[in-house]
Amino acid sequence: MSDRSWRFWAWPHELRQKGILGMNQRNADYILAANPRRNFPNVDNKVRTKQICQACGIGIPETYAIVASHGDIRRLPEFVNERNEFVIKPAHGSGGRGVEVICGREGQHFDTNSGARLTQSDLRHHVATILSGLYSLGGMPDVAIIEQRIVRHAAFDQYVVCGTPDVRIILYRAIPVMAMVRLPSTASQGRANLHQGAVAAALELTTGCAFGGVYKNRTIATHPDTGATIQGFVVPCWNNLIKSAILLADNLGMGYVGIDFVIDQQTGPMVLEANARPGLAIQVANRCGLIHRLQFVDQQLDHPLPFQRRIQLLELIDRIDR
Amino acid sequence: MRSRSGSFLVVFFLVLAGVGAVSLRLYRLKQVRLGDDNGWWRLTYQVEVDVGSEGAKIQVAVPTDKHHARVFRENLSYGDLQAERSTQLSGTSLVSFSTQEKGLHFITAQFDLEVSRNDRSTQFSSRASSLQTTERFLRSTPTIQTQSVAVQDTLKRLQTSRELSVDPVLQIFEYCVTHIEDDVEDESSSDAASVLNYLIGGNLGRAKAMVALCRADGIPARVVTGFEVDDQPELKPRSWVETLRNRVWESHDLQGIHFGFVPENFLPIRYDGDRIVFVTGQEHCETLFSSNKLSPKSALHTTENNPLEIMDLTRLPMSMHPILSVILLIPLGALVTALFQVMIGLRTIGTFSPTLIALSFVMADWRTGVAIFALVIALGLISRAMIDRLKLLMVPKLSFMLTLVVVTLVFTISVLDYLRLTPSPQAVLLPMVILTMTIERFYVATAEEGLTSALHLLLNTVLVSFVCFVTLGWRQVGQIVITFPEVHFFTLAAIVFLGSYNGYRLAELWRFRDLRPSSTDASLI
């Protein structure tokens, strides 16, 4: 029996050899070093991220209303209007906390994507909780965003039974270094968060073609709900998406950032949110570490690189540790 | 790439500052101790009595002038108790306090002593006064059973092997030192017969055994209880033996193996007895004894202040010491939390919640603390689930929960008291706001991430709290931080080191196990 077959841990030198980025190194060497504190609100505040996206011409879900005070809560019916589908989320939330997706309506009753049925009073309470800061970073008072619900692209139908998949791209110095697609599963109750049981698949930066996959922190080859093979799936509108990511990273002013996209059936890629502290599960999905790619970017001279040069680099980055 | 050389430099300077400050403190302590023949000490008693019946009496044995010690200042504080001073035949000086009022009563007594290497026996005589007194120290008592089989058998063996020229007291002393194992953990007042039977005993038990053997051999002897005066935030009473020869009492210390004398810093308080504080009835009584060195200047001119004394926390009133040591322990809790976060990678509910919960357990009796903690969390979660239907706003909801936590806490203490499970009054120190937030976060985590994930978080919090509790509850640590607050230079250095550590967390070695080089995808579905 080989040493690896029974061992349920990795030695630090093994992870270093594979270039795996740990949480401490991510925080110390990349987030603290590359992300100026003054630019954090650009990503932590989704309202501000939306404004930056709009200024750059990058697609975002349409904002129906922003509820900033408890006095505005009584105007919720007016904000929601006759809409059957919408999303309520905190402006300073993270990890999908406090996001309520309404996917159906019957009079004054609203159906969520997890199957629950909410009343107007429930919605008002949820908005009040968001305003109180329960879901915000640091627990500070927050504002609630009511926005368009994304209708997922048909290309994902084979891989998703419920919820909306999203694409995460990690950019360092405004150069994409790693990407993955997150597919909601039955276990994640329609959410695209990996720690809640969503499936992740690595994406080639040049083509948006999926390979490998991870589910509940273990590697998989097929989707656990649909049985579809993950390898070979191509994210639609990939070139558009990667260009939007680079453009947004340039304008956010963050050196190390994760940008989440959703692909709408009608309008294509839209920015869902940007994250100054993107998680490390993307390495498990890609089955390789981030460090060597980040070091490769650092080795490039004359930052910031021209846009076209960055696109050309993607092919080289894709080959690192593959 | 962030440069860590700055951090390492800060760590280096902090360690250097710590070593320097601690060395300076040790040097000053040594200088004060060895500076001259005389030493000035403050001996403090703190007595807390919960009087349950009317007419309770509290007897406190107090120091008086002795061979090597002189009490030059005395300060007694006893609220509305009635005090009466008396001296027993044995020579023990007693202050008796009485009260008609039930409830908690506090007595604080401070004695400033001059301890000298010179024997002041010309001013103070240790001669036994009468034959009647001498006979008193030959009798058998319930704990010094001179007629018991164990005592008589042991004595018979000693007498059989005794040579004519051998001093019987020395022979008994040597026997007790060499044959009776010193059980340093034993603080009970075990009796002479059982100590001689099992040949093991604590400080007091061994002293009683020697007294029993002496008395059975016709040598008047008694147990003396007092203190070994030293810089100690918590001082334990110490017992030794006195034997009467030619109408002069001679001291013998079995623990320190001193025959015929005891060191000058041994301060006798109670003769022929072992309790410094004695309460009649079933009243609950807690005592804390401490002593600290007084600088000659503060001993002689108490009004003159030296700014350098600010750094010496031991000079502060003893009543402040427990709270000071708790405050000084908090950085260690923060260090443990940082260690778990950065090196191990455990997520907890609230960053410093484990430290504060552990701290409250250290202050209270931990059993009471755990019982109340579990009950408050359980009832809090049930209540939280029930009030969820009310759709309250966040802050009023948290206020509601806080009120429930407070009421639950207080009534749990009351119930425990009713069931005579003696709750610690400090149990109320459980961080109520932290408990409220813990309940809220656990509830939200259950709703958002599932029960398993929430329980995992709670388990992590309990685990980190436990490690903090073990660290903070370590008595010696509390004593060290108050005597040497400079050790926090090392704490700061450790925290800066942890802050600049960028290696893998222990949890990541498991999390990324599938990414080992050439690892096959063994877990493919």
Quick rundown:
The complex is a heterodimer of chains A (322) and B (525). Chain A is an alpha+beta fold and 322 residues long.
Protein described:
The complex is a heterodimer of chains A (322) and B (525). Chain A has helices at residues 3-6, 12-17, 23-34, 40-44, 46-56, 76-80, 120-132, 238-252, 281-286, 291-299, 307-319, and strands at residues 63-67, 86-90, 100-106, 109-112, 117-118, 144-147, 166-172, 175-183, 199-203, 210-215, 218-219, 256-264, 268-275. Chain A is α+β, with helices and mostly antiparallel strands. Chain A is globular. Chain B has 525 residues and is α+β, with helices and mostly antiparallel strands. In chain B, the strands form four sheets. In chain B, strands 3-6-1-16-10 form a five-stranded antiparallel β-sheet. In chain B, a hairpin with a 5-residue loop joins β4 (82-87) and β5 (93-99). Chain B is globular and about 85 Å long. The chains are: A alpha+beta (322), B alpha+beta (525).
Brief descriptors of the model:
heterodimer, A: 322 residues, alpha+beta, 7-stranded antiparallel sheet, 6-stranded antiparallel sheet, 11 helices, 13 strands, 23% strand, globular, B: 525 residues, 5-stranded antiparallel sheet, 16 helices
Q: What's the helix-strand series of chain A?
A: HHHHHEHEEEEHEEEEEEHEEHHH
Q: Which shape of chain A, going by the Cα principal axes?
A: globular
The N- to C-terminal Cα distance of chain A equals 27 Å
Cα Rg of chain A: 20 Å
Largest sheet of chain A: 7 strands, antiparallel
Which strands sit side by side, in order, in the main sheet of chain A? 11-10-9-8-7-12-13
| Class by alpha and beta content of chain A | alpha+beta
Helix proportion range of chain B: 40-55%
Strand order of the largest sheet of chain B: 3-6-1-16-10
